[in-house]
Design a protein that fits this description.
By secondary structure, the protein is an alpha/beta fold. The protein has 16 helices and 14 strands. The chain binds adenosine-5'-triphosphate.
């Protein structure tokens, strides 16, 4: 081997291999996208990321990763030839040659370190950008058109969208890159090392037959047999690992529920039942863990035997040629190393089979997520038109998801600044009517007339975001920086003056404040946001009648122009509302003045 020309030889090798690999890579991706369902799923998820019209960076990044992968394969081959030369120099007791090989090693090792670090950086940067882009796409799908809420109305919705965004996006990116580059690197490396082994290999005399280039055939046969046996022994592990994930998820879910419903469980003294359930779920994990351990003992035992045999097997096959001086010590050692590398490369395809099954599951889940979001966005919406601050319903009918009619042919027009109370039996459709007015409910007909902006909906249990009490008070607006006085005053007005000093305290306020305090905080939101129309769905149910009365008086005093639509059962609410919509049986209704 001519080490003086190795640099130019290697560059030429990389250039040729790169051209050919790029061409084959593009053709393979094109064929997979056209011919396979998972290829189409991949393209549906990420095709536009690689579109040149959007940006050239992803394709350039991928091209660089491919180049670095091939450079890595070439460097391995050069190091393999180097080790051949080094052992030969030792065998020949040629000290000057030995030292020149040490110098060559310093250069090769430096290139190896730099290439590895650069390759790591490029791979990571590529993955992070891809993940960020895909995360944004999925988030947009979730947040647009109220899909995160309307998902629940789909007959078959995607499970755990949170897990899709947080976990599957990351696995999708790393598996796409890992599997594709793994295949490229293993294929190119297999070709390169088969060539090395081909040149080192001699005929083998077996049972009276001469097998030419026996070593090459031996390694392929060896790996084939090992693969078949390993798949047989290792296959149950796939299911056991799947069960492991499932059992752990179940256990985690129970723990989360215990903490979420801590108060109710504590009041019921339910820790004994919960403890039994938790222990039995944990028992499943441990039982499965032991099955994994025993199966792994068999699997790893087999793999260790295979890899240990792979160390001596090529030496045994080549020993005769070495002792009869047909090959050098370097050739012998390189044979062993090439055999090992080929063994690893071919084993990649065996391991990749399981990784690929996992990858397809990720693709299915992500595609299912995208389909669900599309269906949620396509669900029907109430027909909403705006006409100043007017609030009215025209020929409006409301249905439940099972097709039952909840309300039929409602016609009403509520003057700006007036107040309507909606009453009716439990399950008659009061909250659903508010959902329709908000534009969230898919099953209605007729027309809703209301402004597009300036609406506020308060539910029985107000949502309090994580963060400071000030953030919770201004939600969904963001707290203005220069309005410390305003927030404190509003707290005092809604009889939460004792919390004034804690406005900037960060904690989980929904766990800290009583339901009555949370409801008064929500009244504070109304005072700050000054909506044109306020919808209150049992928003004062946790307040005593005195406090409820005070809150409604406050609303009327401070927001005289705001139209109020309340849902509630108490007759004490009637005094604050000029109109009452009573929902009767059989989807009938009655509108009357309360005075
Ligand atoms: N997401 C949903 N999926 C299926 N059915 C639903 C859904 N939401 C509401 N319903 C059904 O629609 C009907 C009306 O429910 P709604 O919550 O509007 O009643 P309500 O009058 O507000 O009751 P309550 O006074 O008990 O709060 C009920 O029969 C309920 O079961």
């Amino acid at each position: 081997m001519n080490w003086n020309q190795e640099l130019s030889n290697s560059l030429l090798w990389i250039a040729k291999a790169y051209g050919l690999t790029c061409l084959l890579f593009v053709l393979t991706v094109w064929a997979l996208v056209r011919l396979t369902s998972w290829g189409r799923q991949f393209w549906q998820l990420s095709g536009s990321y690689f579109s040149l019209r959007r940006s050239a960076k992803p394709l350039l990044g991928l091209a660089l990763i491919l180049l670095l992968t091939l450079a890595g394969v070439r460097l391995d081959v050069v190091l393999s030839n180097w080790s051949n030369g080094l052992y030969t120099s030792l065998q020949q007791l040629n000290e000057s040659l030995f030292w020149s090989f040490v110098r060559i090693f310093c250069i090769l090792a430096s290139i190896h370190v730099l290439r590895s670090l650069f390759s790591f950086y490029v791979n990571q940067s590529f993955s992070i950008h891809w993940r960020a882009w895909l995360n944004e796409q999925l988030l947009q799908k979730l947040l647009q058109n109220d899909s995160f809420y309307r998902l629940q109305y789909l007959p078959q919705r995607s499970d755990n969208p949170d897990q899709r965004i947080q976990q599957d996006v990351s696995s999708f990116v790393s598996s796409s890159l890992g599997l594709s580059m793994g295949v490229v690197s293993s294929l190119v490396s297999t070709l390169a090392y088969t060539l090395i082994l081909w040149n080192l290999s001699g005929p083998l005399h077996l049972l009276g037959v001469d097998i030419p280039r026996a070593m090459v055939f031996a390694v392929f046969l060896y790996v084939l047999i090992a693969t078949v046996l390993a798949v047989k022994i290792g296959r149950p592990l796939v299911r056991l690992n799947f069960l492991n994930e499932q059992y752990n998820a179940n256990y985690r879910y129970l723990l989360v529920r215990l903490l979420e419903y801590a108060e109710s469980i504590a009041f019921y003294a339910g820790e004994k039942v919960e403890g039994m359930l938790l222990r039995s779920r944990f028992g499943q994990i441990i039982h499965n863990n032991w099955r994994i351990v025993f199966r792994s003992l068999k699997f790893q035992g087999f793999n260790l035997i295979v890899s240990q045999t792979a160390v001596v097997f090529p030496l045994i096959v080549q020993a005769h040629r070495f002792f009869s001086k047909q090959i050098t010590l370097g050739d012998l050692m390189q044979t062993s190393q090439a055999f090992g590398t080929l063994h690893d490369n071919l084993s990649f395809f065996r391991n990749a089979y399981d990784d690929f099954a996992g990858y397809r599951a990720v693709l299915n889940r992500l595609s299912g997520y995208c389909d669900s979001m599309q269906e949620a966005a396509a669900l029907p919406r109430p027909d909403i038109r705006s006409d100043g601050t007017r609030l009215a319903l025209e020929n409006f009918s409301l249905q439940a998801p099972d097709g039952r009619t909840l309300l039929e042919q409602v016609n009403l027009d509520i003057a700006s600044g007036s107040a309507l109370l909606i009453r009716g039996a439990s399950g008659s459709g009061k909250t659903t009517l508010l959902r329709s007015l908000a534009g969230l409910w898919p099953y209605s007909s007729g027309q809703i007339i209301r402004p597009q902006q300036g609406l506020m909906f308060l539910s029985q249990k107000p949502y309090l975001p994580g963060g400071t009490l000030r953030d919770a008070l201004y939600y969904p607006a963001s707290a203005p920086a220069a309005a410390a006085q305003e927030a404190a005053m509003v707290l005092q007005t809604v009889q939460l003056g004792h919390l004034q000093g804690r406005l900037d305290e960060e904690r989980d306020w929904s766990q800290t404040l009583s339901l009555g305090e949370q409801q008064r905080l929500a009244f504070g939101r109304l005072l700050l946001n000054k909506p044109a129309i306020a919808f209150l769905d049992e928003a004062s149910s946790a307040l005593d009648e005195g406090l409820e009365d005070a809150m409604y008086r406050l609303l009327r005093q401070q927001l005289p122009a705001t139209t109020i639509v309340s849902v509630g059962h108490r007759s004490s609410l009637l005094q604050h509302h000029g109109l009452q919509l009573q929902i009767l049986e059989n989807s009938r209704w009655q509108l009357a003045s309360t005075h």
